[in-house]
Amino acid sequence: MIAKVIVDVPSRQTDRPFDYLVPFEMESWIEIGSRVGVPFGGRVLQGFVVGLAAEADIDPKRLKPVSELLDPMPPLLPDLVELAKWLSDKYCCSWTTALQAMIPAALKGKAERYVELAEEAEEGELPSELAEWLASQGGTAKLEALLERFPQHAKGVKSGLRTGAIIEHASIKDRLSIKKMLTVFLTAEEETIRAAAEELPARAAKQREVLLYMLRHGGPLQMQALIAATEGSASTVRALEGKGLLELREVEQQRDPYAGREFVRTKPLPLTAGQQAVFERIVRSVRAGEPDTMLLHGVTGSGKTEVYLQSIQYCLGLGKQAIVLVPEISLTPQMVERFKGRFGEAVAVMHSRLSNGERYDEWRKIRSRQVQVAIGARSAIFAPFESIGLIIIDEEHESSYKQEESPKYHARDVAVRRARQHGAAVVLGSATPSIETFAAANRPQPSGTAGGREPALLPMPERVGGRPLPPVDVIDMREELRDGNRSMFSRKLHELLTDRLEKGEQSVLLLNRRGYSTFVMCRSCGYTAQCPHCDISLTYHQKTRVMRCHYCGHAEQAPTKCPSCESEHIRYFGTGTQRVEEELAKLFPGIRVIRMDVDTTTEKNAHEKLLKQFGDRKADVLLGTQMVAKGLDFPYVTLVGVIAADTSLNLPDFRAAERTFQLLTQVAGRAGRHHLPGEVVIQTYSPEHYAVTTAQHHDYAAFIAEELRHRGAMGYPPYCRLILITMSHEQLTLLSSVGEQFASRLRELAEEQGILVPLNSGLSKAFDVLGPVASPISRMKDRYRFQCVIKYRGSIDASALIREALAPFTDGPPLRQVQFSVDVDPQVIL
Ligand code: ADP
Ligand code: ZN
Ligand code: ZN
Question: Where is this region: Disordered (predicted)?
Answer without folding.
Answer: 441-463
